[in-house]
Amino acid sequence: MKIFASFIFLISVAHGQDLDTYLRARLDQFLISTPTTIARPPQDLLVLGHELFRDKQLSGNNNISCHDCHHPMIGTGDKLALAIGEGGVSRAGSRTQASGEIIKRHSPPLWNLGHEDQMEMFWDARVRIDRRTKELITPEEKLKDHPEITKNLDTALAAQVIFPLLSHDEMLGKPGSNPLADLNDSIQIWDGIITKLKLTQAPNGKSYTEMFNTVFPGEKHNIGHAAKAMESFIAWRFQVNQTPLDRYIAGDNSALSLKEKNGLNIFMGKARCVVCHHGPLLTNNMVMNVGVPPLQVKGQPVDRGYRQRFAFKTPGLRNIAKSAPYMHNGVFSTIKEVVEHYDDVLANLKNFTPADETFRPYSVELEVVKDPEVLTDIEDNIIQPFLRNGLKLSTQEKDDLVLFLEKSLTSP
Q1: Residue 2: what are its φ and ψ, rounded to 5°?
Q2: CA of 272: how far to CAs of 41, 134, 278, 349, in Å?
Q3: Burial environment of residue 406 by CB neighbours within 10 A (0 to 12, 13 to 18, 19 or more)
Q4: E strands in 48-126
Q5: C-alpha to C-alpha distances, 155 to 131, 217, 232, 234, nearest whole angstrom
Q6: Alpha-carbon span 411 to 240, nearest angstrom
Q7: For 45-81, what is each residue's pLDDT tens digit?
Q8: pLDDT-based confidence at 17, cuts 50/70/90?
Q9: Residues 6+ apart with CB under 8 A from 120
Q10: Residues in CB range of 36: below 8 A, 6 or more apart
């Protein structure tokens, strides 16, 4: 009965057109296509990037790597609502707090960050390439005086990877815990990391000095070289362009079931997901306020995001089923919860209670802020009228939309 209802709904929406012809016309309208394939980097560059990505020696206390919070086997994330930084413990793809610092935001997935149109990094876009001037913008103004570094920061992703190294909570460690953490100059910290690496071996047992000399011969090595290597690895390794939706775009009508096609139609129509999630990467690459309930460590200041407007970067959606939990603070455990939120944003903002599993990994207490002034500020900064009004989706429409997001956008 449900399949029959979906079929009737789609036919009525298509106004008598062939269903697949109709859906493909809509895909074209919203510029939804398969992302281009990023070519495999030279082997030596790829190996260097991989070793740096998984090496704890990039941290001040040698106890955390990029890999710990962006694990390839768990959706390039850590399955935590709020990331656990320096001092946490990683075991078999899971991360526990121990004496670790709680980061105020969720570790974002790394899927498809290497494409040219990905010019904004971090949830608040604090590292970005200005789309008009092509100028690199970062929190560190001194980088402008170091062209020997910035010549290798030719993408926002390359610039992004070096900034967690400066965070006392994320990777650097607290002042007093190691010599690098006692430095006040970012350039000196980055130089110190490279110096430390070149005195040691990578996880694969090879000399970092030899690997840097092989990949970047005849150069005085700096953090820009490490950034270029990690960016190359991340961009190539975590690209996603072989989902069922991509097979459908290529002409395989059987790649999506009827219910998935119904979900795709809702995605581009009644649910208006496509307003923010369009183009090859299924993102508008903007920071948006979508009324997310504020989850945080109890007693900490509320995270107000970009320009204090509770706005955060719109992620791409390919492999979204592998990337739970969701939103900048990981407040939603499932895609179904996300869909329910968008169906009635204002009510959900005020009344949402996270699943118990959200709180279990932490020894500190988390809370969803219920302060009326904070919630009013969030609501006042929601720009899109349709988010204020709610989507009014039926149960069947929600189910089909969730199925599309979970199955049609997931790589093998």
Answers
A1: -65, -40
A2: 37, 31, 10, 19
A3: middle
A4: 89-91, 94-96, 120-121
A5: 12, 22, 10, 12
A6: 7
A7: 999 999 999 999 999 999 999 999 999 999 999 999 9
A8: low
A9: 127, 128, 129, 156, 285, 286, 287, 313
A10: 115, 241, 280
Q: Beta-carbon neighbour count of residue 64 at 10 Å?
A: 27
- Cα 286 to Cα 119: distance, rounded to the nearest angstrom: 10
Contact yes or no for 329/106 (Cβ under 8 A): yes
Which residues are within 8 A (CB) of 46 and not within 5 positions of it... i.e. 6 or more apart? 40, 232, 233, 236
DSSP secondary structure letter of residue 27: H
Radius of gyration of the chain (CA): 22
Query: Taking a C-beta distance cutoff of 8 angstroms, is the pair 195, 184 a contact?
Result: no
Say if residues 305 and 328 touch (Cβ distance below 8 Å).
Answer: yes
Residues 306, 125 contacting (CB under 8 angstroms): yes
- 189: number of CA atoms within 13 Å, CB side? 26
pLDDT per residue as tens digits for the range 177-217: 999 999 999 999 999 999 999 999 999 999 999 999 999 99
Query: How far, in Å, CA of 150 to CA of 158, rounded?
Result: 9
Q: Is 90 helix (H, G, I), strand (E, B) or coil?
A: strand
Buried b (16+ CB within 10 A) or exposed e, 293-324: bbbbbeeeebbbbbeebbbbbbbbbbbbbbbb
Number of Cβ within 10 Å of residue 38's Cβ equals: 17
Q: What are phi and psi of 129, to 5 degrees?
A: -100, 120
Joined tokens for residue 1: 């009965």
Question: Is the distance from CB of 141 to CB of 214 less than 8 angstroms?
Answer: no
Tell me how far apart the alpha carbons of residues 273 and 268 are, in angstroms, rounded to a whole number: 6
CA distances from 90 to 85, 86, 94, 205, 403 (A): 10, 11, 6, 21, 32
| Residues 345 and 291 sit within 8 Å (Cβ to Cβ) | yes
Which pairing describes strands 127-129 and 312-313: parallel, antiparallel, or unpaired?
unpaired
Count the alpha carbons within 13 Å of 164 in the hemisphere toward its beta carbon: 28
